[in-house]
Every structure is written in structure tokens, then in C-alpha cells.
Amino acid sequence: MATLKLRDRDGITTKEGLIFRVFGYSHPPESFVCDAEYASSEIFKSNNPKAPRGSGRNAFYKFYEDEGWKFIQRRFPQYMIFHEMLGKKMAGVNHNDIFEVKKPGVVLRNLAGAAGNDDLLAAMQNLLNIVLESSDLHLEDFGVFGSLLHGFHHPKHSDIDLIIYGERSLVKLHETLGEFYKSGFSRLTNEFGTDQTIRGKDWRFKNLSPDEYLWHQQRKLIYALFEDSKSGRTIKTEFEPVKDWKEIDNEYDSKTRIVPRGWTRMLAKVTEDSDAPFIPSIYNIEPLEILEGQREASEAKRVFSYVEEFRMQAKRGETVDVGGNLEEVMTPSGNFLQVTLTYCPRYYEQVLKVKV
């Protein structure tokens, strides 16, 4: 599988019954950095009531937070690959260990033409038809992820998890969804139009309030509620941005090193946001004021975020409050500083928000 090309959110299954999601676009040779998503019930059990997927021989459990990382580190260390740039091991799969690949665009096209009495598939087909008829988008601009990708969705309870491919397609989708949300008569509404989605939830972020979170999520437009007349359900729907093939640049370089330089928090101006919709989300910045940490952070060039809550969080020209891990990226052509937001001991202290 030396020539295998995969991108963010493509699915990988191993012979043991582990399901990984390809994570981002930059990977070591002959392997993919991944996030462990599910495990077969034959090798893993979870007491989390939200975790079960499928049934019988197709029964799986979903990993939450760092559960998957800990499980594979303990039980399947062959799925921890060495990342030379970071100097440590990460969850990942070598090409030769891949049992099956599921590509979201291919699976969606198959599901879009599927017949039967599956309420969720019927709702997804209906939703796609509404979006396609109201825009100049095409079926090929979309994919599917989550339980729908792997065939263990629940027809009456699962969400609709879709992918939108490419920056231009995302702009068109934004225009279409924006019109739906403003019309007041659409069966598609903004999930974060009210605080119902977050009401009563345990809030962990220390520097981002629920109201601030709600404001940022509302303007991203990619989170919707779909009123499905056939099933009578209001179905949570996501449109996750993934890069088109021509937009992808593998930045993995075995000669580059990324070195931690401590914690920082600052005010900064966003100077470029074209990679903000994707994972990792990248924002070029101009630091304005250092609030915490070493003064060298005033030379930081960008924010590099793996945290989904901080995707599409800020736009070019806006001033942001950003707190995270200051890193020095040491490349053959020169060094620069970045603020990285990722899984770490101070995860919930990290912040990226517009300074209003």
C-alpha cells in the first residue's frame, strides 16, 4: 500500500477490529497519523451509555476523550507510530497494517442511491436533495463520516454526519445554509440558534464561557438541525470541512523538529484564515500583547489548532485571545514560533476566542 492516498476523516480498519480516522494531512512515510474512533465489542467494552454502536457481529464501542489513545497504547502498541518532528509516538497505522479503507465520498454515493426502510438514510437523502437543489453544489462535493460511514448507525437515533470537500464548496454551502437559517421557513435551522444544545451540560473550558462558545458556534453555520417529516425527528446534522485533494500539502519533514517553549497567552490579530475550517486549523497572526508567559511569544507567526471547538473560530482582521503551548518549529530553511492547541495536560485552559 505504498502509494495509498488518504486524507482527513478517511476510515481505516485493522484486522483486530479497531477503527481509526485519518487525522489531518501531514503524515510520516508509509503511515498515517490517526485518531482511534471505535473498537469491536470482541476486544473492547465501555460503560459509557453513549458508546455502543451496531449490534451482533457488527457491534462496536466508540472511544471518548483520550480513551482510545490509552487503549491502543496498552493493548495494541503497534498502532503507536513515531513522529520524528515531535520526537514522540502518536496514534497511527502503518500502510501494511491496514485491513480495510473506507472513503467517505464513495460510501456517500452508495448510500445516496440506497433503497429500503432505513429512516436515517431516507432523511439524509432528503436533506442532500434540499441542499443540492438550492445551490450549485454536487453530490461529489460531499462525504459521510461517523457511524454512517461504517454501517452501524441507528436508523432512529443516529445523527447525520456529512463532509463538505474543499474551500470553494464550503463557501457555497455557507451561502446556502445562511439563506436557510435566515428564511425562518426552512426545515434546516442553526443548531446554535438557541442555547438548547449546551443547556445543562458540564462546562470544562476555563477561559471560554458557554455564552462565548455559543456565539462562535452559531456563526460557523456548519451545525444544523433538520426537521425530517417522515420520521418526525429533529436530526442533528454536521457539515465537516475537509480539504480537496488539490489543496493538500503534506508538511511532514523528517528534518524539521518541533520544540516546546512553555505556556503562553496573548492578544493577537488574525492576518490569514484560509486554513481555519480544517483540522489542523491554522491562523496566521500578528501578536499584539503578551498576557502570560515569556516575551519571545511576541514573535509567534501562527496558531496551530487540533481542537475541534476552535475550528473556524476567528476570521481575518479580528483580534483574538489565544492561550496554549508555545512551540519553536525548527526547519532546514529557518525557525519560527507558533501557538499550538492540542490534547495536553492543560487542555481545558487552552483558548481561542474573538475579543469583542
Q: Please write the string of helix (H) and strand (E) elements.
A: EEEEEHEEEHHEHEHEHEEEEEEEE
Radius of gyration, in Å, reads 21 Å
Low-confidence stretches: none
**Strand elements, count:** 19
Global morphology: globular
Largest sheet: 8 strands, antiparallel
Count of alpha and pi helical runs: 6
Give the percentage of residues in beta strands. 35-45%
Mean pLDDT: 95
Distance between the termini: 49 Å
**Helix coverage percent:** 10-25%
* Domains (count): 3
> Which secondary-structure class do the elements indicate?
alpha+beta
Can you give a write-up of this model?
The protein contains six helices and 19 strands. The strands form three sheets. Strands 1, 2, 3, 4, 5, 6, 7 and 8 form an eight-stranded antiparallel β-sheet that branches. A hairpin with a 6-residue loop joins strand 4 and strand 5. It has three domains: 11-102, no CATH class; 104-246, no CATH class; 257-354, OB fold (Dihydrolipoamide Acetyltransferase, E2P), CATH 2.40.50. With 356 residues, it is of the alpha+beta class. The termini are far apart. Helix content is 18%, strand content 35%.
Short description:
This protein has helices at residues 67-75, 104-112, 119-133, 147-150, 167-183, 210-220; strands at residues 11-13, 18-22, 31-40, 52-53, 60-62, 80-83, 88-94, 100-102, 142-144, 160-165, 188-190, 223-227, 234-242, 257-275, 281-292, 300-305, 319-331, 334-341, 351-354.
